[in-house]
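so my prof wants the structure for this chain in the tokens format not the other one, which i didnt know existed until like an hour ago. anyway here's the sequence
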Amino acid sequence: MIDSPCYFGIDGGGTRSRLKVVDEAGNTLLETTGESTSIYSMSPEVVTRNLKSLLEPLSRFPIRSGCMGSAGLSREKEKTFFRNIFSTLLPTVPVHLCSDGEILLVGGLLSMEGYCLISGTGSLSLRRDADGHITRSGGFGYMLGDEGSGWWIAHQALMRSLRSMEKRDVNTSMLSALLSALSLEHVDDLITYMHHRVSKAEVARLAPVVTTFAEKGDPLARQILIDAAGELSALVESIYSSQLDHQELVYAGGVMEHDTIVRETFLRLLSERLPSVTVTQARGTALDGACMLARSTAPS
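here's what i got, hopefully its the right format
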């Protein structure tokens, strides 16, 4: 039987959710995986049921506090939904609710302050100071933003390849490959697809096609990736503060992790524009960050 205080962290995802329980020293006592707890992926009833199932192992531990990080959980409407669940399931346990970006930042830097940049299907940047204040840039979704993301890169490639076909943009040979990747045969099929059948995830999966062409020297593909790096740098620049003691940035997401052109261009731009910010690879995981935030939430 464990007598000393324990803390739990949840990294809530659209496909699966992860739970970790740690002791006072940060040692892992339990790590498990459950179903999706994202209200953007599942109905409220299913999310409630999945979260209840995920939390069942906590009955074996003297939990002092917890943290749950998930996409969109920085918004008050979403927080209210999850507060109501936790107040029923764990009525005496304070739980910090926050975005997936916040737990990534804290876990990736193993620090309570700093910066993070996410560029996967979507994009956003965050700054967290030592007092827990969060400043965000981006994250408005693919219809309003997501600049520099996989979606943005692919959408730019589709849109500008059509312009290039009409001799209104930089030359490219990408269009046929982009259509093939979507299992489309003609440009007219693309028009129908984008206006009636468009899927954010399917379009975002075209980003590696752009990378492949850029690496072969395709002028338009290369320009799009360089522009993407500029957009990502702008996201970070917009939240920069010289008052932050910990001037480190951690990045995550498929674009920054796998696209060498975007990553190297971004690193060069940021070093020129924000020389005080050091970019580092993740030292820990988002789940580690959730546990660190859980421990900081515990009553004094």
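also thought this was worth mentioning. The mean pLDDT is 92.
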